[in-house]
Amino acid sequence: MTDPETARRRRRPIVRLGAAAAALALVAPLAACGSGDDGGPPTINLYYSPEQNLQKVVDDCNAQAQGRYKIAYRVLPRQADDQRVQMVRRLAAEDSGMDVLGLDVTWTQEFASAKWIREWTGQDKAEVEQGTLAGPLDTARYEDKLYAAPKNTNVQLLWYRKDLVPQPPTTWDQMIDAAQQLKDQGKPHQVLTMGAQYEGLVVLYNTMAESAGGKILSDDGKQAVMDEGTVRALDQLRRLATSGVTSPSFSNATEDPVRLEFQSGNGAFQVNWPFVYPALQEANPELAKQVGWARMPGIDANTPSRVTIGGFNLAVSSYSKHPELSFEAARCLRSPEHQKFSAINDGVPPTIEAVYDEPEMAEAYPMKDTILEELKEPATRPLTPAYQSISTVMSAILSPPSAIRPQQTADELRDAISDALESKGVLP
């Protein structure tokens, strides 16, 4: 007999992605912002997500340009999907009013495949690659060519209550067992992390799969694999969801509600991004004194976890009227001095390894050594132009995690990912 969750998944409507892409190409060009056509210095339009102090970096780069060009910061919507839609529509219309683009690390291959962004070559390429961490660089490449410059990166950490747990667990099973013991003792015990049907769930599963040595895609990114390691990760995710130590809202939880629930004192453990540290210091300073951090748990006790990286890359639009100046502007925006400034003031971890050794980083990032440790052995999300479609079908199939049937779910994921790779993705 088919259970209700399996039946729901089988009813997902089919959408031909090729038709959707063709529709985008018909979008009329949006009005482009000025590019210095009035006789003044060229304007380099930077399209980037909201970042509180990025304008100060832009101002400094403009001062360094000494009047040869002026960067204008065009703030994108706050939500990642809205950012991507705006840029895709304008690039599909060959809008020349876009110059430097801030791309989520999962978009670079898609934009490069569509020929919307330019390859980094020569001295521009050499400068970007020098001293940049390997994981972020991997997200900026497509078909062994560099198409973007990593501006900042990110990884999740394990945050734990030192007053409840003497040593941080090194595996998910250890963490679940410790939480169950705390629960039996009537103490705060919950393991809090993101389990809603969205990208956060895909990131959690990808970290588990990579930590188990699993492969979701083949090395060339062209075939769905879903090997034994990915099945073990599905079993681990199911065990977490059914262990009785997650929040009742786990299957609907996203980053900020997870942070708030931990801040309220309900959790013994939290898996989340480093933004939770300054927020906790401000919201609950007494609790903050009891909170430590560690590398995310792995699957096997003797094998360190491989944690999925986030972040943003800077790319130059193929339709920019000022490509050389745009490459120069992008290099300035992600220079070591500006990565340090953004790390300290906006909480975005650098992609240039040497920045972590700067004295000012110690106070702003007391957890910087743990972040760097994870960044040196990272996991990337599947590197393919079809990632957006893959992420959509994965989050649908993985949700809710309590309904996972490891081998059956792996087979379903393999089929759905194969369809997405062939541009006939199944969208929920």
Q: Which characteristics define this entry?
A:
428 residues; alpha/beta; 5-stranded mixed beta sheet; 4-stranded mixed beta sheet; 19 helices; 11 strands; globular; disordered N terminus
What's the arrangement of secondary structure elements?
Blueprint: H1 4-10, H2 17-25, E1 43-48, H3 54-65, E2 70-75, H4 80-92, E3 100-104, H5 108-113, H6 122-129, H7 134-139, E4 141-142, E5 145-146, E6 149-155, E7 157-161, H8 172-184, E8 190-192, H9 199-211, H10 228-241, H11 255-263, E9 267-272, H12 276-283, H13 285-288, E10 291-294, E11 309-316, H14 323-333, H15 336-346, H16 361-364, H17 368-376, H18 387-398, H19 406-421
Parallel strand pairs: 1-2, 1-3, 8-9
Antiparallel strand pairs: 3-11, 4-5, 6-11, 7-9, 7-10
Helix pairs in contact: 9-10, 9-18, 10-19, 18-19
Write up this protein.
The protein has 428 residues and is α/β, with parallel strands linked by helices. Helix content is 43%, strand content 13%. Strands 2-1-3-11-6 form a five-stranded mixed β-sheet. The protein has a four-stranded mixed β-sheet with strand order 8-9-7-10, with helices on both faces. Helix 9 (199-211) crosses helix 10, helix 9 (199-211) crosses helix 18 and helix 10 packs across helix 19. It starts with a helix and ends in a 7-residue tail after the last helix. The model is unreliable at 1-35 (pLDDT under 50).
